[in-house]
Structure formats: C-alpha cells, structure tokens
Amino acid sequence: MMQHSLMHRIALAAFFIVAMETLSAGQSAGPIAISPAHLPRIGSVSDRYQSYNIEMVEVTGGRFWAPYKPAANGPAAVADIKPAGTPAGMNPSLYRYRAPIDLGNPQLRKLAAALSPAYVRVSGTWANSTYFDDSDGPAPSTPPAGFGDVLTSKEWRGVIDFSRAVNDRIVTSFAISPGVRNADGVWTPAEAEKVLAFTKRAGGQIAGVEFFNEPTFASMGGAPKGYDAEQYGRDFKIFAAFIKKTVPQTRILGPDSVGEGGSLGQQPAAMKMIHTADMLKAEGPGLDVFAYHFYGGVSQRCAAMGGAAKTSPAEALSREWLMGTAKEQAFYAALRDRFEPGMPMWLTETAETACGGNPWAASFIDSFRYLNQLGVLATRGVQVVMHNTLDASDYGLLDEATLQPRPNYWSAVLWRRLMGATVLDAGPSQAPNLYVYAHCLRNQPGGVALLALNADRSATSAISLPMASMRYRLTAADLLGGSVALNGSNLTLTPTGDLPALQGAAAPAGSIALPPASITFLAIPGAGNKSCR
C-alpha cells in the first residue's frame, strides 16, 4: 500500500514537471472546453453598442492635440493660425491648429458606414465654449466674448448629413462658458436653443444631449472660475427642464464625469475636481442615461500633469491595464446604483490614454485594450461604448491624414460584423492572460460568436469546441506596428478604398490554438443556442 502511494506521488510529481516544462516552452496546459449551445444569456447591449466620437474642435477647426512627429510641411507654420481655444490651465505647446474635418468626404463616410449603426458623439472639452452662428452670412472672424470657438450652420449641417449618410445618431453637448450666462452667472439655454432649432429645420435629430463635457474638471473645461457642485446642480435643473420641454424625445446623458475611480491617479491641486456624488445630490432627477468617461492614464503629451497615471508599451498587455476599465466602471456603477438605480449606463468617451493617446495607441498592441473593453463592459451591463476618436490624433480609428485604417479599426469592423447585441456568459478563462467573451452571432439565429484574446507574449493557449466554426485571427509581426494580419494576410483597403472580404478560415471541431499575442474571433452559426433564436 505504501509502495503504491509512493509510486502515485512520483507519477503525480512527474506530471507536474512535464506540465511546467510545457508551459515554460510556450504552450498552455490544455484547451479550455466551451459548449456554445449551452452558454447562458447574461444581458444585452444597444445595437449601437460600439460607437465613436468626432470632437467638436474637429468640426469647427481649432487647436487639438499636437502630433508627436512634425508634419512634412511644418506644423509650426500653422500653429498660431487660431491661437485661441486652448483649455484653461493647459500648456499651449501641447496643441496644433487643425482645419475643419470634411464630413462629406466619400472615403470617410464609406469607412464610417462599415461601423454602423452607431452613435456619433460631437462634444469634448472644446464644445463647452463653442458659439453657434446660425446665420446665413459669413461667420465671425473671432468668437464673441465668453466663447472660445465658432460652429457655423454649414459645419453643423455637415454633422447632420454625415449622420444620415452613415446611419448614425447624434449625441452632443452645449456651451456652458461665461458667454452663455446671465448677469448672475446662471446658465441660459440661448446656445442650446439655436442648435436644436437649426437641427430641426435641417431635418436632423439629436438622440442624446449632455449638459457639458466632463464637469468633474469644470474650471479646465471652460466653466466660470470657482464653479462648484451647487452651481452645477442649479444649472442642470434649468437645462433638464429646457430639454424635456423642447425635445422630449431626446435623452439626457450625464454627468459625463472622468477620473474619479483611480484611473488617472492623484490629480494636481491646481486641477480642482468636482465630485460626481456632490453633483448628483445637487442636480436631482432629470437624467435618462448615466454616462461617464474612462481613460486608463494620460499620454506622453501630458507627462507633466503631476501625479496623473502614466503607462508604457511594456504594460499594454498586463491584466492591470486591460482590466482598469472594469475597475472604473465599478466605481461609477456604485454611484449610479446609489442615485439612479436601474438607469442605463453608457461610456461616452474612452481611448488608450487621455491627451490624444500615446504613439502606440495607433498600433496593434492597443487592439487588446480596445476589444477587451468592449467585451468586459458588455458583461457588466454597459449599453454603449464611444471610442475617442474616429479619425483624429493617435487614438483615432483612422489616420486623419490618409484615412487609412489603423489596427483598432479592423478590430472594430470584426466586432460589428460578428458580435450581436445579446451577451452570453463564456465562463472563466482558466488562464491568467486569456480573455474570452461570447455574444449571439449577429444576424444568425441560434449562432454564437466568441472573442478570445491571448495577451500572453510567449505562451500559446487553446480552446476546444464540440462543433465547427469560422476563425478570424488577428496577429501582427510587430506589436508596436501599424499593420495587422487576418489569418496570416495583411489587411489593407482595396485599390478603390473598399474593405476587403474579411473571410474567416474553417476550423473543425476540437482544439483551436490561440497563439501568443493574438486576437481570435470564432463564428459558430450552428451553435443552436436557445438564447440566440
């Protein structure tokens, strides 16, 4: 008996040695079994779940985040064309002038339409101080007193036409700067009224409105000096009553806070924060959607922002970085549950890092963050996620100069084509660097779509399916490069600027390898999942 026990222990020890040697050689211990037919439904998201921002400063033209590399024609030559418009308290050298975006560009519309249906949010810090010129005459050469930028009726009509052309719905915010306040410093709907009236005349519609962008940093966002939660609550009540009376079908989103869950680290004392709990206490009822913002840190541009959180490429696949979005959502969800229980929750602005993104925000390594955020927030009940931006700065889905897709764009297209609105429970990943999510397969009754991200840089993982699937695997020879391959072939637009076919590769039932640093979508039309019918 003792001899049998000893032999058993020796065999068990040998097994663990072999298992450890296999892991150290870059192989997982074994495939994770998933039964697509039996994955339970845990919720649903908006059909416009994956959405994006076009900053108001893009529409008007103005000083946005300066590129890390100077343009060939010398950006310094145009840096002072429009010197106004730098957010209060920020270093002007961080910004460069950019001309208004051409929302009528056929190529831009073609690429945006591939992500539809979506919400397009036209807001941002600059929107807080934007004057709307709804006249038919020439726009003022300088903004009126109390404003920082001018939005023309032609530019706003361009937003309306763009949204219709690509099947998007508009979300926006209004000016809250001194120029829109009365003699007592109280907010008035003067600017909001003009925007809404013109939108109606132009045949457009605004699906959602925010009072203003990121009131947690109100002073930096153009609010009057010393602005506090009490003043916010007073102004919000006026805003909410105006919206409910003027456009009752338009949902009110808010408070659009950012940075309180620890993601941006300890803020400098000069950046006085208004806390969301205090704003919610002061504003009372009025919201239709609880909205918040999330950035996991600040980019290299803003490295001088005191204790603000920084990141690096070395951390870009770490669990702490990839799951930071869940930690921030939990913080704001607790506030939602406390003040507005049961209210839908939207993430209305997010990207790799604040301040325009790091250089590697445009590389394949950020696609893990991009897709993991969509995956994990869908399991936590967030209804809409709006990426910042479609095509501006380093975190844009498209290169703003060439309109060439970046890796995140290709990830976004695959999500749009495969991941439906019904969210399923994929179960625990059983591997420290493997993230697996499941949705009903889009437009395929009974079908299931899986997303598996192997964020391990050296070890292969695997999942096992009892039925055949179509595999869409994204990899890159250089994680910090701008190229990405689908099933081994580099993704590029066709000569006419169209998307390629994006065809999957047939995968038989059984084990499916997930190579190191790879992203794999699996479409399983024959899953027969009852929750997906």
Give the helix/strand layout.
Elements: H1 2-24, E1 32-33, E2 41-44, E3 50-53, H2 56-60, E4 62-65, E5 95-98, H3 106-113, E6 118-122, E7 130-133, E8 149-152, H4 153-165, E9 168-173, H5 190-201, E10 206-210, H6 229-246, E11 251-257, H7 276-283, E12 289-295, H8 319-322, H9 324-339, E13 345-351, H10 366-379, E14 382-388, H11 407-418, E15 419-424, E16 434-441, E17 448-454, E18 461-465, E19 469-475, E20 485-486, E21 489-490, E22 505-507, E23 510-514, E24 518-524
Parallel strand pairs: 1-18, 3-6, 3-14, 6-9, 7-8, 9-10, 10-11, 11-12, 12-13, 13-14
Antiparallel strand pairs: 2-15, 4-5, 15-16, 16-17, 17-24, 18-23, 19-20, 19-22, 19-24, 20-21
Helix pairs in contact: 6-7, 10-11
Proportion of strand residues:
15-25%
Distance between the termini: 56 Å
Shape label:
globular
Cα radius of gyration in angstroms = 24 Å
> According to CATH, what is the class of the largest domain?
Alpha Beta
Query: How many beta-strand runs?
Result: 24
State the low-pLDDT regions, or none.
1-25, 71-83
Major sheet details: 9 strands, antiparallel
Number of helices: 11
* Structural class designation: alpha/beta
CATH fold group of the largest domain:
TIM Barrel
Can you tell me the CATH architecture of the largest domain? Alpha-Beta Barrel
**What would CATH call the homologous superfamily of the largest domain?**
Glycosidases
User: Approximately how much helix is present in the residues?
Assistant: 10-25%
Number of domains: 2
Mean pLDDT: 90
